[in-house]
Write a structure and sequence with these properties.
The chain is built from 5 helices and 7 strands, in the order E-H-E-H-E-H-E-H-E-E-E-H. The protein is an alpha/beta fold. The protein has a single domain, classed as Glutaredoxin, CATH 3.40.30.10. Strand 1, helix 1 and strand 2 form a beta-alpha-beta unit.
Length: about 150
């Protein structure tokens, strides 16, 4: 669900490749790590290569408008965690933050693992990466799955 509570279904994107970029929370991390860095690294795929990149998180649709604008990528809310669970799995993000001494008593706040999934034109998964909130996907692997990017013949 997007900023205006509009729904986006994967079936509406059939016939084109799509990158699903899962992240634990909007406005977390910074330009050198975390959610902001992850989405920034995927902007060229969305903007220059013309392949839809959809950011997906548990945060509410109220947050998705400002976060989408800030991140430069369309971001959607998955408050039920159903889409996240189907592709990358969940993590106790609150415990993760508590263990880093970033927060106190947040354990139990479930969100998705950080991840990227590439779907082909028939919506079959052709690439999956899932990691911890402090890890980032390898964009060159995503580009290779999409058939874009630089090729090294060495």
């Amino acid at each position: 669900m997007g900023a205006g509570f509009e729904t986006t279904s994967l079936s509406s994107l059939k016939g084109q490749k799509v990158v699903l970029a899962f992240f634990p929370a909007a406005f977390s991390g910074d330009a050198d790590g975390g959610c902001q860095c992850q989405l920034a690294s995927l902007q060229s795929i969305d903007k220059e290569d013309g392949i839809s990149v959809l950011g997906i998180t548990r945060d509410t649709p109220f947050v998705m408008g400002p976060w989408s604008e800030f991140a430069g990528i369309k971001c959607l809310s998955d408050v039920s965690n159903k889409t996240q669970d189907a592709y990358v799995g969940a993590i106790d993000f609150g415990k993760f933050l508590d263990d880093l001494d970033v927060s106190t008593n947040m354990a139990g706040y479930m969100s998705c693992k950080r991840g990227c999934v590439v779907l082909d034109e028939d919506q079959k998964v052709i690439y999956t990466w899932a990691g911890m909130p402090d890890q980032l996907p390898d964009v060159t692997e995503i580009q290779a799955a999409l058939g874009i990017g630089k090729v090294n013949f060495e």
